[in-house]
# Entry
Amino acid sequence: MMKSNNIPEVALPVCIDKIAPELSLDPEDWESFRACAHVALDDAIEFVKTARQRSVWQPVPERVRNALTGPLPHAGQDLNEVYEEFKNSILPYSTGNTHPRFFGWVHGTGLASGILAEMLAAAMNANCGGRDHGAIYVERAVLGWSKELFGFPDSASGLLVSGTSIANLIALTVARNARATGNMRANGIRDYPRRLVAYASTEVHDCLVKAMELLGLGAASLRKIPSNSRFQIDLRALRDRIADDRALDFEPFCILGTAGTVNTGAFDDLDELAKLCAAEKIWFHVDGAFGGLCALSADLKPRLKGIERADSIAFDFHKWMHVPYDAGCVLIRHADLHRAAFLMRPPYLGELPRGLAGGADWPCDFGPELSRGFRALKVWFAIKHHGTTRFGQLIEQNCAQARYLAEQIAHQPELELLAPVSLNIVCFRYRTSGRDDKALDDLNAELVQDLHESGIAAPSTTNVRGHLAIRVNITNHRSRRADFEVLLSAVLAAGRRRAASST
Ligand SMILES: *Cc1c(COP(=O)(O)O)cnc(C)c1O
# Structure
């Protein structure tokens, strides 16, 4: 029988088993795969549910380190065996940020719903570089919500990325190229007649320094402006430096404001920075890695005033929204400038009017990555499931916990607060009489290592105005007030032990 289009109908083999065996990576026995997967899912749920019952952190033992440096496996192994090895040798040695007393750096806690989203994203295995399929629309939905959150216009563009480091790099690339009107992509900065300089406070995150380096602008072209007593950029010093640079024929192209600095959680005066940028015709970028999400809280949102006038914003979903690593976002007010910095469509990425190769814009038009995973799904799950109100409440709860901790510290003569607590970060140190600053720095560094090794709590360290600080960052939806009492008694015990042993 012939079909009307004259293509002979091909008889499909009825029984695939009769064909000569060919290889694939699918399970040979789907039912035993299913059994293993169900066990793994149950264990994953249990791991998250029982986070509080474990120590925050434990070192990776020699046995495990050795096992993990084994040779390249040539022959495969049963999935159950591989899973057992994971369960015994990898799972127990996590960072610890699922624990309610993890207070280091700025780590999100994770979300139970994230287990589902990550599993389902792996099943779909979407490549979100582009094309016309469901995952792209999910990413657009997440970007749309993000624009709404920050008061950006619908016409703005954006991209989900691994984190704020890359979001900052992308924003700064757009800012640099927007200034250089087209030639930058072809000729690099070499042909640009003046030296491009950017501005941020001394509290700026170092990923922005790296971005300046990567863009060929140089770290020294990021002018670090002193911060005031509240760790905000000093506006007068900033204005003076811009004027000085202009007088020397440098070209100011970007001001980097921070919403929530990594050391102390300070907010630059974004409103004033927005005005200054408008007056000086300078790109206004906001690094809101974690503090940007204060937009979710009616109480805290006023601190972000001015962000709605930024040219670009970088922030993370994996910090204060606890979406599993990794998930960050960049928003660019003018999509055309964003596209102009990255669009490149060789024939093999050509767009077709219909079918899978349709559906402009593609995410690859807005950043350096072509192949990209389905990050948007876990963000979409998180926002749909918990809603923005609950996230806002948890951000406020963490800030209240930081104030509570600061009050407790103020009542302890052996403890000294090293910076005002404006948000969710508490910097303090243990002190004891008869020691100079250097000795106190050493003691506090030892103390933090003692805490990590005890498994009781995990703060990190930083330097605040020349002093080594125990830094407690609270982006943790599992922490309870009592956890801060546990932390403080552990700090005091460790501090006294150290003070007694090394006099
Ligand atoms: C964490 C952080 C960054 C870097 O973000 P990643 O998601 O770790 O890449 C940048 N800026 C600030 C203020 C941060 O807190």
